[in-house]
Amino acid sequence: MDRLQTMLNKIQVDTYHKNGWLFVKYSNNKLTQGWKLHVSSQLKDACNIFYIVAQELEKERCNYKVLDCLDELKKLNSPREVSPTANKFITIYPSSRKQAKRIILNLKEKLEKYKAPRILSDFQCGEYSPIHYRYGAFKAIKNYNFSENKIVYMMKNSRGELVEDLRLSYPYLPEGVKDLFTDMEKNKLFKPSPEIPENHPLNHYNIECILKKSNRGNVYRAIEKSSNQKVIIKHARPYVYSWNDGFSAIDELKSEAENLKVFQDKSYTTDLIEEFYVNEDYFVVQKFIPGYNFFDLKNIDIEKNVIINNIIDIINDIHAEGYLAVDISPTNFILDDFGRVRLIDLENFTNKNNTVRRAATKFMINTDCSSKICTIQQDYFALAMLSFAIMREHVLLFEGEDVLLNITALDKIKSCMYIEKEIGNITKSQFNWLMYLLNLSEQEKLDRFEKMKYINDFEDKNIDFHLKKVDSSFDFQIENEKLINYLLSLNMNRESRILKSNEFGEFVSPVSFQHGLSGYLFYLSHMRDIYDNGRIIEWLISEGNQNKGNVYLNGCSILFGSSGYLWVLLEFYKKITSNNPSRELIIDKIRDIYKDLMSSYQKVEVFDFALGKSGILLSLMKYCINFNDVDSMKFIREKIEELYSYFVDEIRNVNSLKECNFAHGLAGIAYVISIYNSEFEFKAAYENSIKVFNNLLENLLENEYSRLNATPTNLELSWCEGTSGILLYFELLYDKRYSKIISRFQQLAFKFNLIQSSCYCHGLSSLLQTLNYQDKLNLRENVIEILLSRSKRDKNGILVFECEESSDTLFDFGIGNLGIYWSILGERFPFEFKKELR
Question: Chain-centre distance of CA 244, in angstroms?
Answer without folding.
Answer: 28
